[in-house]
Amino acid sequence: MSITNDEIARCLLGEFFKPPPDTTEEPEEDRLREALPVEPLSEVEVHRAIFASNPYKAPGPDDLPAIVWQQLWPVLKHHIVALFRLSLETATIPKAWKVAKIVPLRKPNKPDYTAAKAYRPISLLATLGKNLEAVVAERLSFLAETHCLLPKSHFGARKGRSTTQALTILQESIFQAWRDRRVLSLVSFDVKGAYNGVNIDVLAKRIKKRGIPNALVEWIIGFCSQRKASVVVNGHVTETTDLPQAGLPQGSPLSPILFLFFNTDPVSSKINRDKGAIAFVDDYTAWVTGASAEENTNLLQETVVAKAEQWARRSGATFEADKTAFIHFTRRNTTTSNGPLVVNEAEIRPQPEVKILGVVFDQKLRFNQHTARAAKRGIRAALALKRVKGMTARVARQLFTSTVMPTVDFASPIWSTSLTGRATRMLNQVQRIGTQAIIGAFRTVGLTRAEMEAGRPAMDPHVQAEIQILGQMSHSPRKPSMVEGTKEDRLEEQTLPVTAPAHGRTTRRGRP
Amino acid sequence: MAEQLDAVDLKEMEKIDPFCIPPWQQGLKAQILDREEAQKWAEDSNELMVFVDASYRGNNAGVGIYHSVRRSYDSLAEHRETIRIGQNAGYTPNHVELIAIQAALELISAIWTPDTISIMGDRAKNLTYVIVSDSQAAIRAASKPSRQSGQAVTRLMVNTAREIRSRGGPHVRLQWVPAHAMVVGDEIADELAKKATEGVLDPIPGLTLSSALKKTIACMPKVKLEKLINMDTALPGKHTTSYTINKPTAGQQYCANYALRNVG
């Protein structure tokens, strides 16, 4: 029995765009602030958006890559700007810009490739439309940053913020809790099918509430509704079909920032000695501190989980049960507990280690598992580099710093504090293979010599991390200085952890 | 090392905003030509030029401005200005170049007051002032303001230029000329700037640039590497490890304190 490509496509679309559950009505609240003024579209921002896009990235249904617009800019600029201006003024978007070409790609290492879950849908959009979306995204981002429309605990998809900062705040909170002789318990949620599950009406209400100008809100509603898609199956492009509940379109530069507005409510919470939260687009992590793990479990259940579930009900989102992580951070075995947390009627037991924003945190914050993983990844990458023959030393070195090192030193300021001798030896193994690949040295050459010849700084995340951290200090989340700070301007007042001087017992490791 | 860090006031760290100017606004107009072309431009052009140069020696920051207007064939109206900014260890030469351009903008703003503009009428609108600097980095920063060190000055520049324009004053453009290439105006500005940093200047409080701090810190692993190079691997490990600088635990505030007290 044979199945036609169209049937496969229908099945995939059905799986990728499931109808979202019903939402309870979002309460009509007063605007938190007056609508902000709109400035007319200028040529500079369109120019910037067009030239910032990657010229040869896969194009959408119209098969025009971004390079076309970049090359034709001198001829077309007035037309493009006029078209964009018209679109923004009338809050309408050309139908052709709302058609996505969806390419399902196989996810690696899945047992069964007949299930739709084993495929990652990649959505390709028309490049010119994406440029307008990028312009709007930049404007939204500007409004959000200058008028403090988003909570400070949001770290993803925002200017001048990074995962490392988010993790630094978490790590510092854990150390602070330990200095206070407390246990820090953390729960981390992942929103299921984040962009597709966004309800447009709810989103529109939420952005309006935060003071986004009406014209822009209208445009965003138009942008999200009446979207269409076609699927590529076995090299065959199927007919375009309507997507009644597409939510935020995947692959649009506007989606991340809109999602931040969508989930501000559960995320906005003060970070202090008792509790805190960090969010990274669809990933939300919250913690509380207390004298014992049981106490914390109850507190989390009553406050964080309740609040998150309420938010999910109101906005029609669901949390992925198997991705919910729960952990107690303590170095005293007596203070931990095994009591479960109930999320979505499923019991979640505390785990010995959880992965938060790509870093494996263990209960005692020793990061042994994480460094082992990082070293393993690095060794695999370095060996792959070594297998490539015939490169000059310069090219090999460039490849090493740009492809191998990032697999190792991700978020190194976080975990390099607790490097043990064994872990350092493992990391040095990466460096050793790398230097062999660069200069073709014998295996017996001393590492320090090889490093020097290969022009590599010593693999010492201690030192590297320090530069990163101090470099980042200036970018740490604060109120921007462009707008004079009035009380009304601050939607939520938050304080970052003010840390005690360096007398904590827990931090004494690794110092001379 | 400790001395270097002590000189930098970590508490007065510069603050970098996510946006320097709103996305719909443009930076200053700028032109960076090839070396030869730029030199030729400087010799041939009869535009209104304001030459600026900066000097940063021994933590002293100073700016020189040279502006000349040809009145007739044999008379030249000149304006020479030496601004002694002050002493701050948290600056970089590039930042002083930015300040120099801002000083030139303020000079233009002072020339084209609303009164002069009302006397001159529409003629002011059609004028273009060219601020000539020998720092490409500063010109690039002013033409494309972003999240970078020295952002506050760049913002001030864009706003000053807009303000001059909005009251009906002249256009402003930035132009690069090569340094020490016998461009007369640039040489004079250079001399004026050097004069500005002679002797002892008053310290100016506040503002440590993140770029200045990064530069200080970035020297550290190199120091370690140099020591290692001087030593053979045959030496016992304790000699080499003694140069390791310990990383302070996470946390921003904490870092600053730690670096001030313990690194070195």
Characterize the structure shown.
The complex is a heterodimer of chains A (512) and B (264). Chain A is of the alpha+beta class. Chain A contains 16 helices and 13 strands. Chain A is 43% helix and 13% strand. In chain A, the strands form 4 sheets. In chain A, strands 1, 2, 4, 5 and 6 form a 5-stranded mixed β-sheet that branches. Chain A has a 4-stranded antiparallel β-sheet with strand order 7-8-3-9. In chain A, a hairpin with a 2-residue loop joins strand 4 and strand 5 (236-237). The radius of gyration of chain A is 25 Å and the shape is globular. In chain B, 44% of the residues lie in helices and 18% in strands. Chain B contains 10 helices and 6 strands. Chain B has a 6-stranded mixed β-sheet with strand order 1-6-5-2-3-4. In chain B, a hairpin with a 5-residue loop joins strand 3 (60-70) and strand 4 (76-87). The longest helix of chain B is centred in the last third of the chain and has 21 residues, at 210-230. Chain B starts with a helix and ends with a helix. The chains are: A alpha+beta (512), B alpha/beta (264). The interface between A and B is large, with 64 and 48 residues.
